Amino acid sequence: MITVYEPWAKNVRHIDFNRAFLRTVSISYPERMIHYYGCSSQIDLLKNSSFKSIKFTPLVIVDYSKTNKILALWNEFKNLKQIAKHDSDLIFITNAWPHTIFFSRFLLRRKKVIFILHGQIESLIQKPNYRKIEAYYPIVFKLNLNQANFYYLVLGQNIYQNLCYRIPYLKKQLIWIDHPYIIKPVKENPKSKSTTYKLGTIGLGTAAKGTRQLLEVEKFIRETKIDNIELSHIGIVEFDFPNDSLIQYSNTKTYLSEVEYDNKVLGLDYILFFYPSNSYQLSASGALLEAIASQKRIIAIRNNYFEYIFNKIGDIGYLVNNLTEMFDIIKKIAANQDKEDDPQQINNLKSGITYFSPSYVASQLKNALSNKIILNKRI
């Protein structure tokens, strides 16, 4: 039996990763039953994904932004205690926060556990803010140094290398695979010179991700009188754009359905990324993989993870050093002057997404577990 526990995500949050990771584990170990624990609203979505040999058990998953912190910690303790009661040869915890790792030290100490680390470990490259739970990762890592059955999984070889550099003592417990992503059917969308180009940001829009920079793009477009570029944000944005902005977005603060979200992303011609250049050193970008899966070229501020993906699959758009360079690219697009770049970039998108397919990542997962002798017997 393999257990997969999602302690954080509700509804469509992280649904693409959780769905793809379940499929990756299923492909890696087809003879094994998988027991998934998580929020009932997300389980309903996962059940529609044609999974076989997976048992789903709903648990209470609280909203950490709205729940009393003590109650949230107590709820996580109860969930882990319930999981500990069941026999399992291997447990994957798909979004491991410091308190989850800490409680596991006592409740899952006799189990083999792999904690998957996502964006919250970016806190390791920032000044510690001990009012936030992310600041306590170094403490729980050190507490578990002698826990030989605990491992940490990151989503990219560059992230593995960066984390080994920052926390050398973690190397023996650290493994990596690429972020799995399920390929989606994409219809060809040929362009003509008279076409209006649709550019936008996707996913959760926040100040930390630089989403407000979309306003700077709008300002540039107005000042240069470009009339064939439309701007939008697809997904929730944590702030409101000015009333006079022409940026299209939903201000309802509720998640779009998967179908509506995917269709809107497919309607874009280019996807913009304004993440700070010093970000994404320790985490993967699901939004970037969404762009690749949707075969959408990108225009992005250069950072370590985006460079890793470009080196892995080839040129899939433009990496720029600043907004001025981004404006130059947008001006070029508006004038329909980037046509020569299209074929190679589109081919790279089509072939590149296969490197993140569950079947490809499954081989990475099996190799990673074998190399660490995590699975030295049939599970």
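^ that was protein a. below is b, sequence first then the tokens
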Amino acid sequence: MFSSLLLATALTTSIHASTRSDTIPTNHTPTFKNQGEWEAYEIQQLFHDHYKPQRYALFEGTQVTSQTYRFGLLTLRIDSVPDGITSLLSRGLLYPGLPGPIFGPIDTLSLWNIVELKALSPSSQIRRFTCWVSNLRMANPISYAFELTNPQGTSNMDLAVFIRNARLTFLYQVGIII
């Protein structure tokens, strides 16, 4: 009797484990042809796992000189920018001291390697990006992902025009670039 009960319990546990939907198959690991594919997959997973739409305030009173943007006492330098992206800072969409982990209170930061993630933008009103932020005290830059939303955005809208009426709706510190 005891051995029958033990066998029934073992079979039930085995059947239950094989039908559970939260078990991870061992052969489910994606393969990547190169570093770029892996990075794209990781960013896609980030938006899937951590996405929560937000609404950030604009910084009022941005002062612009050449590639330097002044936000009160804090300065942000921008290097190697794609066409149309400078209004991201001049409008005060991204700035040092944003709520959350971005940038922090360091007095001078550099923003660079801004890349639009066209394949990850779910609609023509939403555009997603990654960028790197660094300062003289950091050995390596920090990678961020962010999203801009423009309710009037269209699929063929120029980036500068899109940013003109956009709001920052997502911001996430991805990690340190090594």
